[in-house]
Design the sequence.
């Protein structure tokens, strides 16, 4: 019994170390998004890559075609910019880096814009998009994503705030310069690093790789 209590204390201490400043640990997986949950229509659905591609050619996949691409599992946490941090999510999906191998970006690409249903967008630096932990997720904890959590496809960038992890992903656009997405254009930080508490646009400065918000 003492050993079990010790293990519980160690687990709690480990979670505390993984909670960024200004965040608090929560159990479960809170639902947070803007607007209604879209209906999945497989006959109309595809994932598109466009913009500044190396060959100047767009590419798209149906949901069934995505199942043939490389998949992997990543265990990571999720940090919402409003404060909650949930831990030990098991994400399963397509490494974002694998997408770039299939559709290489032009050499001058520095960022990507991710597009979702209803025109939602979020921008991330190319280096964040190609992180080994960044996935195009189809499953969570061995189960398909629920509609509320982004089914059929969700981007997960676990080392950034959750508004960078676009639900209901429909397209990836290669950019040669940064462009603000939906929440970024409404006052959120263009990078969104939770360990630096980069929540708001007024915190941006030339030294952190973001342009000042004006």
Sequence:
């Amino acid at each position: 019994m003492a050993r079990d209590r010790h293990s519980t204390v160690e687990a709690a201490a480990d979670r505390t170390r993984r909670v960024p400043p200004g965040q608090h640990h929560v159990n479960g997986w809170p639902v947070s998004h803007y607007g209604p949950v879209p209906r999945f229509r497989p006959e109309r659905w595809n994932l598109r890559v466009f913009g500044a591609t190396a060959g100047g050619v767009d590419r798209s996949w149906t949901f069934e075609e995505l199942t043939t691409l490389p998949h992997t599992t990543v265990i990571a946490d999720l940090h919402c910019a409003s404060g909650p941090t949930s831990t030990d999510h098991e994400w399963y999906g397509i490494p974002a880096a694998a997408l770039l191998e299939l559709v290489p970006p032009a050499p001058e690409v520095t960022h990507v814009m991710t597009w979702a249903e209803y025109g939602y967008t979020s921008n991330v630096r190319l280096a964040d998009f190609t992180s080994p932990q960044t996935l195009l997720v189809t499953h969570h904890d061995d189960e398909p994503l629920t509609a509320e959590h982004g089914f059929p496809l969700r981007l997960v960038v676990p080392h950034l705030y959750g508004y960078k992890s676009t639900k209901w992903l429909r397209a990836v656009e290669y950019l040669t310069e940064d462009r603000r997405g939906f929440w970024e254009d409404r006052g959120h930080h263009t990078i969104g690093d939770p360990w630096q508490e980069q929540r708001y646009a007024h915190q941006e400065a030339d030294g952190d790789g973001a342009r000042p918000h004006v």
User: Anything to note?
Assistant: Confidence is low (pLDDT under 50) at residues 6-13, 209-214. The chain has one domain: 45-208.
